[in-house]
Each structure stands twice: as structure tokens, then as C-alpha cells.
Amino acid sequence: MPYTVRFFVILLAANALATPAAAQNEAPRDEFAECEDSSSHASLRATQCALFETPLDHGAPDAGTIELFVRKFPAEGRAKGQIWLVAGGPGESGASFYPFVDTLRAAAPGFDLLIPDHRGTGFSTRLCPKEEGVASEAGSSLAGSEWGTCFGFLNTKAERTMAFTISNAARDLELLMSRLDTDGHKYVYGVSYGTQLVLRLLSLGAQPGIDGVIFDSLVPLESNSQLDLSHRSAVTDRVGREVLRGCDARPECDQYFPDGAEQAVHRLLDREDIEVVVNGNLRYQLSALLDFPETREMLPNVIAGLQANDAAWLEFAIDRLGVLGSVLGPYPQSVSSIPLVSLISRSENNARPELTAEVVEREQEAFLFASPLPSLLLAGGIPTYQRDANFGVLPATLPRSIVLQGTLDPKTPYHGAEEHVAKLKAVGNIELVPVERAPHFILMTAPDELKRSVRDFIGKDCGLETPEGDRLTVEACRK
Q1: In this predicted model, what pLDDT tens digit does every residue of 203-222 receive, in sequence order?
Q2: Is beta strand 398-406 parallel, antiparallel or unpaired with respect to 65-73?
Q3: How far apart are CA 215 and CA 195, in angstroms?
Q4: In the chain, domain spans
Q5: Which residues are 115's β-sheet partners?
Q6: Phi, psi dihedrals of residue 432, rounded to the nearest 5°
Q7: Could you report how far apart the first and last alpha carbons of the chain are, in Å?
Q8: What is the fold of 23-224+393-477?
Q9: How far apart are CA 56 and CA 129, in angstroms?
Q10: Strand 81-86 versus strand 185-191 pairing type
């Protein structure tokens, strides 16, 4: 893997801790049957799998087809409806939800959970089918010579590569939801990039029977060029400084940082030897610790240790990141697709295609916390595609929706969600629920809040007990 920063590997591909499978899961075509891997992990017990054919390019039906993998976690007894779970990334498969099925069932009891691997991820058709296949040398990861052969394939098959767009992925969702429609209510949950994908689905005018949408960590408006991925370091730095100011408010911090925690970090970054002490980029490493409440709380200890030339706390915190991230990775299709991350991020979510390494380095100098993402957007490697006419377009109408947003989210910032929700209120009923001091991915980092909010949201339609103790009739959930 070409990225040498240790903690960034943990975060970008924490789910790469999975061991390669001997062969790709073989699911039946067009209909659900028991998954072949249902006995491989407790969380997959009694799941059903299927593959569905979809056009490679929905705007060019003669360009060929690809396959989409869907796993269903059936409800016990007669289902009240469906909840479609749309993963983030881009590049993450639906396997990122598997560890949290118990939380989701508690949030929405009685619903079938349908989890697709969107195109380019998991058991769906990959950008590099051979090199990213789970039976390859390193499983779904790329390793060694696979990087060269994969990127060569993507350039040789440029038209195919450029068909793996957000809009085509949104049309995939429309096809699946229409084909697998049922009598009950239908809800869609999307997280991070998954919220962008769901909004693209809705902006295309495609709302196949959707009764409600749950947005977890809503992306900023596509039209906001100051909150795109090329500005991720500014987003991260803003959250990091807020965390440091929280430390300043605690009396115990005074003895370590008499001039404030921000000033202490400034002094560390000014040291010529700091990269040797921390064995890497300190700004990146501090940024990584913001992703989980547990590691975020270690920041004062990390900074105090480094003031004394002791990196033990930093090493411990980075190790904890790996442990916390490993919950995502016991499945062979867990590994994020780095080619798909690069393709979509550079094609659609980079407002500055002219960005250079010199600009990235100069901008980072102003930050205490910085993200490696801007440097990964630099030109080169694989073809990119042009944004289509759907980019930046709001849906004409919006199903009843709720947004669960951490107020200390270092990836999809809270103020970006506020702006986005304000725009979406013009087209539908949408509520923003701030999750105080939570980071990204509320399902993972604040599960109790997610359960409470989703039960309340769905309970208004579907006979679930609300926090007030009321209970609607089950019949209210059926069409």
C-alpha cells in the first residue's frame, strides 16, 4: 500500500483487518437464499443473499452490465417493512453495518434490514475484479504488483472506470428498491458518503416508495466549495481546537498547559525534531485521535507526554484506534476499495482539481490538526469523470427525514449539516438532531442516541413504542 503513515492506514482501511476468504461469496441471482457464509460469523446467522444485474451505465444500456450484492437480515415473524442501509466511503461495503445489526434491530424492531454493497465495493462488481477479488493475493485489498495491474486495467478500460459514478450508483439503488418492494413501510438510512448517495437518488426524482430517510453524519452541500474534501484539514482543525478548548476549561489541564492546550501544540509543532519523536506527521496523528470519544479524551495525556519527549501515550492512543476500528473488519468484503475512493473523491468531491502538493503543505502550516485527504486528491493514477447535471441539485421533494449529527464531527462538520438542512427544509419535512460532542458515524460512536432517535422517528408511522411510552398500532405501519 503506498500510504506510509501508520495511523492513516488504520483509519482509511481499519476494516482491512479481515483475513482473505478462499473464494468470493456465491449468491444466487435475482432471488434471496441463505448466504453461504451465514455460519462464518455470529452476526451473519440466518442472513439471506442475492446478486442482481444492473446496467454498467444507466445512461447507456448497451454498455454492458455489472452485479450488485445484497444481504438481508430478515425480521423475526412478519416484517413491518424494510430499512435500506447505505454505507459510507466512498469505497465501503455494506459489511460496515454488520457489527451493528443488534443496535439497528433495537432501533427498528420488526423490520427487514437490506444492505447492498454499492457498485465497486464488497461482493458487488469491483473496479478491478481480479485484483480486488477476495480470492486474490491479499483478498479485497491491493498488495504488491496488484497496484500496478489494477491501475493499468482502470486506464485501459477508461470508459468502464468512468461509469462508476455517484449517479449510476444512485440508479442502482432505485433498481434494487423497486425490484425488492414489499407491502410494508420503507425507510432508508445513509451514513456519511451514503447520505450523499441517498440525496443523489432523491435528486434524480427516484423515490421508490420511500416513507422516511435517516441521515447519519450528513455531508455538506455539494455546492459548498469550502467544505469539500480538499478543505478537510480546515474542518478537522476547527473540531480539534474546540476539543483543546474543552481541556482548557478543566482545572487539571492547567498544570500541564498553563498557556492553554492550543499553545502547547503550537510549541510542539515548532520543534524541528518532532517528526522524529512521533515517527510521522504530528498534525495527522492528532487529527486521527478525534474520530472516537475514547481516543479524543487521550489528547491531553498525548500532548503532555510529547512535551516531555515521551511518545508512549501517542503510541497507546494509535493502538487503541486500531482496536476500535477492528470491529468493522471480520468479514472478507470489509476492505474499502481504494480505487473507488480515489475515483469518486477526485471526480466529484474535490472543488480544487488544480490543487498541488505545495499548496497542501502550505495550508497545513496554519493548522494544529490536519487530514491526509487533500494530498490524496492530487492528480494522477486513474481516469476521472466529469460531474453530471445532477451535481449540486437538491431533490424536488424530500420524504420525512431526520439528521443525526455529532457536534464534534471532524469529517462532516456540524455547521455544514446546519446549512444543508436549512436548504432541504424548503423541499420537505426534515429535522436536525444534534448529538452533543459526538464525532462521526453516530451508529458506531453514539448508539444509544441513534436507537432513541430512530425509534421515535419510525414509531410515528410504525407502531413502535416512543420514548414517551405511547405505542401506535402495528396496523399504522402497513400500507
Answers
A1: 998 777 899 999 999 999 99
A2: unpaired
A3: 6
A4: 23-224+393-477
A5: 71
A6: -100, 125
A7: 50
A8: Rossmann fold (3.40.50)
A9: 14
A10: parallel
